[in-house]
Structures are given as C-alpha cells and as structure tokens.
Amino acid sequence: MAKKYHVIVVGAGSTGTATAHDLALRGFDVTVIERGEIASGTTGRNHCLLHSGGRYAVTDHEGAVECIDENRVLRKIMPASLELNDGLFVAVDESDLAFKNTFLEGCAQCGIPARDIPVKRALEIEPYLNPKILAAVQIPDGVFDPYRFCLSFLATAKKNGARILPYHEVTGLLMSGQAVSGVKVRDYRTGKEYEIGGDLVVNATGPWAGHIAAFANVDVPVVPTAGVMVAVSKRLNQMVVNRLNKPHDGDIVVPQRMTSIVGTSSWKIDDANAIKIPQEHVDMMIDYGEKLIPALRQNPIRGVMVVARPLIGKKVADEREVSRTFEAFDHTHDGVDNFVTISGGKTTTARAMAEATTNIVCQKLGVSAECRTREVVLESYRNYYNN
Fold first, then answer.
1. Which residue in 344, 370, 341 sits closest to 355, CA to CA?
2. Distance CA 291, CA 213 (A)
3. Contact, 146 vs 16, CB < 8 A?
4. What is the DSSP letter of 383?
5. Same domain membership, residue 79 and residue 215
6. pLDDT digits (tens, 9 = 90+) for 133-153
7. SS3 for 107?
8. In terms of pTM, does the model score above 0.90?
9. To the nearest 10°, the Cα dihedral for 359, 363, 365, 369?
10. Residue 376 domain flag
11. Do 350 and 372 have their domain in common?
12. What's the pLDDT tens digit per position in 36-63?
C-alpha cells in the first residue's frame, strides 16, 4: 500500500487476535490493546470446543455452516493447537431418539459430516457414557486451549510487525471531528495514562463492545448473556459428548486436558464485569450432565466459571433463540467514521470474523489486499514469546 495505515485493535480474545493477524498479513501497522492478560475475557472462559456446527444444525443454520467451514480451516492453519478428538451426540431418552432423524437431516443440510454409530460401539469408545443411551451420532467436533489459540494468532501477527499491549485499558476514544483518530489508555502496570493515535480503531471486545462504542456515542446490538460451566477433576470422556436434542442447559461435556467441563446455562445480564454465579446453576450442570456421564457426580468439582457471550440480535425471552452468527458494524452508518465493531460468533469462527472485519477496514482505507488467512499456517503459540 502507498501508505502504511495504523489500525488499533481493542481486545485480545479470539476475535481481536485473529483480526490483528489478518491486518498484519495484509500489510497494516497494527497495535493490539487488552486490559488484562491475553484471552482473559470471554475467550478464556469458554467451553474450549472446536465446533462442528452440529450443536446448531437444527436451530441455527447460518451459525452451523459458519462453524463447520471454520472447523475445516482451523484444522489446516493451526494443527498443533487442536485436539481433533471428534464428538458424539447421544440420546438418553425417547425424546432424544425421536430427534435423531431431524438432527441428521439438519447436519446434511449444513454440510456437517454425521454418521449414526451403534450404541455398543459408542460405549466401547466412551465407557463412562450412560449405559442406557438409545442412540449415538458421531460428528467432527474438537477441543482447543483458548490461551494457546490466541497466542498462535498473535505470534504470527508479531512476526509481521504487530505490537501487543496487555494490561492496557481503553478509557476513551480520540475524535477528530466525526472520525475516531485513536484511543486513550491506562497502563495498569505503571499507572501511566496516555494516547495512541491511529487511522482506524477496531472494537473487538465481545460483550464489552457496547461500553467501547459508547465512547463514540454509538450503539451496537449486542445481547450479553451469561452461562455457567463446571469442571470436574477427571477426564471422563475422550470425545466431546452432546445431548442429541436442541441446545439446552447442561447438555454438553467437553474434555479439556485432565478435566471434563459440563455446561452451560443461559440468562441475560446487565454487567459483564460482575456476574454472580448462582449455586442452582452449578447444581443444574451436574444434574443434567450426569444424564450423559453418570460419573460426573462422583468426581470432585475442580472449578466453576461464568462467562458473558456477545450475541448479536434483539432481546428475546429465550437467549438460546439468538443466532450464534457474527456481524461487523461500520459505524460510518452511525455518523462516526474510522470505527468498526465486530461481535457475536464463536471462538471457532474467529478467523472468519477477522476476515469480514479486515475487508471493511480495507474498503474504508482504500487498500487492495486479499485475505490469505485461510491458507497461511500459524506460528506455534510458543513463538509469541520469541518474536
């Protein structure tokens, strides 16, 4: 490009780090700002699930297609950071069994590989499964470590010149007329407050997107919802285990290293910084989770976590009705230029979210540069500390 534009990315979760990688790969000067440690927000407290899309195949076609497409891409670009262990959707009652054909049809429509396997085979693969299951369907789910996931993107972005500023909080936006021209930040390690100028700011702060957008007096339709997850101190399943039905509370158990994580509940919140964990939600995770894997109850709880999801859409009675798709907002339509917000989606779709965001940045700044993040293999997460 004739001029090397400086783009500031606010947020170092999966979306922000993937966006920094895409921007740097296309030749932009990039600064990433994160108020905590890398992946310390929503990304660091998610289910660690590499989605096949099966979870949304019946209820959210768009979100499911995005997931399976990005599942395939991530397998190519970050193979060392993924555990490609597949997943099972299992029927524990007649209602689940009746849902099986609907599920298989939904997967077929979304292009998700799904195959019905004998119950006997499922129990051989996963001996801790409820022995009374009535059916099992295998799909290409997987598992990742959220911290390493983000560091892989950042290691590659740093190799291409990006600067990463953790423990820096954005306290305001700099304005030049009706255009954003940078950010005001506070360095928590030194207490210093200062300004960073830029040609464009990307707001990739997930459920906090509304807080950052408010500095420019614009609104984004983010519906923050919380969910409780419970980890027990033993890895009881090697594959991801899902309930063969529409998404519901406590209907998935994800293996992560030497633990099993059961989740999740869902309710609306007002403040993503202060979410109280209801004990009844913790109890509910074990109650529902043991229907899939009875041994969950016999193993001590290692940790309980809650996270805010940045769902896109209008507020509804049931948050599970909100699509898990994503959207990039060019705030020129709100009367504010050089300011873009990206929100919604899943960690699995972070690369696609970054591509959509960077396409808008290129269009706004008059830069012609093709996206290459589908093909470029990421650096090892270990190289984040070496670059």
1. 370
2. 42
3. no
4. G
5. no
6. 999 999 999 999 999 999 999
7. helix
8. yes
9. 60
10. yes
11. yes
12. 999 999 898 888 999 999 999 999 999 9
